[in-house]
Amino acid sequence: MFLNAVRLPVNEAIRETSSQSALSECVSRTVRRYLADIGDTPCDEGLHALVIREVEGPLLREVLAFHDGNQSRAAAVLGINRATLRKKLAAHGLL
Question: Where is the DNA binding HTH domain (predicted)?
């Protein structure tokens, strides 16, 4: 039983996925599944913090790998300062 997940009517769910990017659709599907899995169990750190923590590491790793480890190019693509990128990489154990 879905306690925390909101089920969209079929026609609204179709409209939602047709207007979303593949990334947005993937996030929506994953968050719905996560909410269904945890039920009424509280998320101690908050769902937003959990999603950011879980997504940021792989995002940084993939962008950096795509740019062959070039932090300046990766930072530019991410829209952040290189120093900020280095701080985030260190926080995620990626340096």
Answer: 52-91
Task: For residues 42 and 30, give the distance between their C-alpha atoms in angstroms, rounded to a whole number.
Answer: 17
80-93 pLDDT, tens digit each: 999 999 999 999 99
The whole-angstrom separation of Cα 29 and Cα 50 is 16
DSSP string, the chain: --SSPPPPPHHHHHHHHHHS-HHHHHHHHHHHHHHHHHTT---TT-HHHHHHHHHHHHHHHHHHHHTTT-HHHHHHHHTS-HHHHHHHHHHTT--
> For 30, what's the count of Cα atoms within 13 Å in the CB-facing half-sphere?
11
